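Appendix C. Worked example: RNA helicase
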Amino acid sequence: MNPRYATGPGNGRFSQQTYVQRIPNSQSQQQFQQQVWMRRNESSPIEDGNQNEEEKRVQSEVVDPSSQDWKAQLKIPPVDTRYKTEDVTATKGNEFEDYFLKRELLMGIYEKGFERPSPIQEESIPIALTGSDILARAKNGTGKTAAFCIPALEKIDQNKNAIQVIILVPTRELALQTSQVCKELGKHLNIQVMVTTGGTSLKDDIMRLYQPVHLLVGTPGRVLDLTKKGVCVLKECTMLVMDEADKLLSPEFQPSVEQLIGFLPPNRQILLFSATFPVTVKAFKERFLRRPYIINLMDELTLKGITQYYAFVEERQKVHCLNTLFSKLQINQSIIFCNSVNRVELLAKKITELGYSCFYIHAKMLQSHRNRVFHDFRNGACRNLVCSDLFTRGIDIQAVNVVINFDFPKNSETYLHRVGRSGRFGHLGLAVNLITYEDRFNLYRIEQELGTEIKQIPPQIDQTIYCR
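Step 2, the predicted output written as structure tokens:
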């Protein structure tokens, strides 16, 4: 992609400006930053009454004040030294500072442990900042969440008491996770983030909306409900992000999403992110997106770092086979998928009886219980989690290095999202599929559709393929 982008409508601070890919080596950082700030001031004239205050703010943000060491004062987590695949390392070499983000946002980015942008972030962030619509397709676990959260936080005016960004997601767990990422990235900004999903108190959400909210993360049904009631006011909401867009445009969610768009102002910007884009997305794009910028980083569908095996077993042998895997594999954390709620609970009981620590989660559990399981598993309280497909979408738990399909999925899309729970952000992972006689046709079809190879499991699995 061309490293320069002509800007369009959107953030006033970016109008009549170009995005420069790298700071030229011949120029000192300080001179370059000062020129940038001067261009910013020229491109958005300030009314006389606010001029002195604005000048002081700009001066305080130039990289000078006792400076260059603002980064040194941050609480940056230890560098992740694990091996990473080119899914996240094949970048153009950009830095987050190249995007002229607010200093406070950069502080949150670095304190979150982000070192430099991943390919999807390099492609998305500068385009999103210009106000253009985006249709972005990238693999699971390559940094899509930050690719839309960073420009969303940058464009919010914290002095304006109004919802300015909505992020829609298909599941409650993903809503909680995304809102947490927004809070962590924006912790040095005075931006109020709220999460709202079904299964929680509507009254509490209504009360919360009477207080300032700048960024709202939620599931479509609940957000639409609050909007129709008149408590979620969207007339100042100029950015709508749809994460896992293929799921949000399924018959279950699409009517709510389309109704919600009707409440947004005419100058709204829509960003669609997903790993898979079925035909429904094309029709939606033509109706609602205006000359969208298309990003496709899917030269292949499965992640490079995930090794996939199958074990051919009879149904009655599955638990014994799982026990063998637990004893042989080097598991940091594992997610084990079943095709029904009933089987999730039965399998969790069996695993506990075998003497292994195990949680389970599915859609029929109380929301408070689901939240507790999700929180505890993410924090490492348990090694194994049995779940239904509730947990396939976007859930990011870095320690998961093994995914086991106890029940083999029926379609390639579900398979892709399941195995994408391991090998997050370019790290290595292992997917083991327990295949019965009835599953053999599905196995072959999914291999063909994804253009991948699922090999027969060897007697011994080399630890370096999923533990480096």
